[in-house]
Design goal:
alpha/beta, binds NADP nicotinamide-adenine-dinucleotide phosphate, binds D-gluconic acid
Amino acid sequence: MVNFSLEGKVAFVTGASYGIGFALATAFAEAGAKIVFNDIKAELVEKGLAAYKEKGIDAKGYVCDVTNEEQVQATVAQIEKEVGVIDILVNNAGIIKRIPMHEMTAAEFRQVIDIDLNGPFIVSKAVIPSMIKKGHGKIINICSMMSELGRETVSAYAAAKGGLKMLTRNICSEYGEYNIQCNGIGPGYIATPQTAPLRERQADGSRHPFDSFIVAKTPAARWGTPEDLMGPAVFLASDASNFVNGHVLYVDGGILAYIGKQPQ
Ligand code: NAP
Ligand code: GCO
């Protein structure tokens, strides 16, 4: 029988106090995993713990900035001591800055690359040695439509997410022989705090132009929800995907396949 169970596994989801990370961690808990997450602010870790508790999930939260290698190494060591070796890592923590490239400062560009690309490198590097010792591991990198497509104002984010797609393939290439599978999930446009500015109602109560654009570009004719990502994430975290490696699974309602609906 195909094994989608995560019973007895330790899943570490970065930046999972809310949003997509919270949904993925919830799905993993429902499949039997022990949940560990981090955030950069103590108050958000507390908020996340309360939200998990409300769902009956006994998660453990740590204050840790994924760009700080010392903090990450110490947090992973603490997790291994307090919870157990990490079987599943989801590199979910990420930011976006929507600024025309010629107006973006180098510091702003670097900050996005640091969190969205260097962060996944730092956290993956911290968990791989124990995965090798244990003889298995799952690393899931949260990529994006911008791993494949560009758009105005998101140069740093697209560069980071394009790099994250190739980091995914490289971890697959370098660690596949240790029974470590590294895959990506490429969410389409998902309704979370990160995309809230793109869905804000206009002063006259009409939909944001970008909101209407995305609905017209998506065959499913709707924004995705974090819940749409839960099943694909459990699949990639489970033994059911042990021969799937270096792949980015786009969960986008069909955007990447579709030229878009003709404007009426
Ligand atoms: P979100 O609502 O903005 O949540 C991002 C999470 O990452 C927050 O908990 C945030 O904590 C945390 N974080 C940010 N910087 C961090 C750092 N240095 N160390 C640790 N945690 C950090 O975003 P989301 O929409 O859930 O997106 C989650 C992931 O999916 C991101 O990688 C994003 O790029 C990707 N994604 C999103 C969409 C979408 O349409 N929403 C689509 C494709 C891909 P703070 O609140 O403290 O900053
Ligand atoms: C944007 C959006 C997108 C989504 C996502 C799409 O400004 O274009 O924020 O980048 O976050 O990455 O997959």
